[in-house]
Amino acid sequence: MCAALTLAVAQEQQQADAVNAAGAAEPQPDDSKLFHPLVIVSRVRGLCEVINPDVGSFVPAVNGKAYPLGTVVRTGADGSAVLSLSARDTASLLPGTEVVVDRGEGDAAVEARVLRLMAGQVAFDLRDNMPEGAFTIETANAVCQNVAGRGEYQISKDGDNDVFQAATITGAARIVGPHYHIPALRAANTVNIMTEPNRSLSRLTSVSGDFVIVLEKGIEDPVEYGMSPKAVVKIWRENAPVGGRTIVATLVVSPAGLAQHRFAYAEGRTDLATGELVTPKEEEEIDLPVLLSDKAKTEAAADQGGAAEGASEVKPADEK
Question: Does the predicted model carry a pTM greater than 0.90?
Answer without folding.
Answer: no
